[in-house]
Specification:
The protein is built from six helices and no strands. It is an all-alpha fold and 185 residues long. The longest helix is centred in the middle third of the chain and has 19 residues. Helix 4 packs across helix 5. The protein has a domain of 120 residues. The chain is globular, with a radius of gyration of 20 Å. Keywords: Signal. InterPro entries: DUF4331. This is DUF4331 domain-containing protein.
Amino acid sequence: MKNIKILTMLLAVSMISFNCSNNDDNNDFMAYEPDFSGTYVQQDQMGRPAVNTVFVSASSKDMFNITPPSQQNAAFQSMFEANLTALSPAYANEGDTNALGLDAATFTGLLATDVLNVSLDGKTTIYDGENVLTGRALADDVITVELLLIFGGEDFSENPGLSNDNVDGNDKPFLTSFPYLASPW
């Protein structure tokens, strides 16, 4: 998991670096207007990557990815719930909830709409004990939070072996100024 986080950060930094240039000497360019002619089709989406990966059945991936988020809950919530209850013993009994107090149907109703919510007037975090799904800060341990909400039960004590990815931080600290990501090794 640490390697995936490092690879993601390296890819982001390389994309930023590749697209930046300090060469302002070349004025031999023409301004081009974007060409919006033609037909465009959505092929993929992943507001919450681990959620899409885990809860969308393999045979439904393409359909999920082209379904607008406004229609995903109605189309896929029951699949999400079936996959959650089959996967997690924390929802084995009627009335079981997670630490947010959400039962399987309510929790998967939230997850089935694949968007990354962002709070415009509060803290941005996936979960900090008080704020839930208000965005995503770089330092958020997203996978552990998702594992806790899926497997941890009402008080995060159920299934401790499944409730933590055991990656507690980056190999290098984040920067305090833009681009915020640590420099690659």
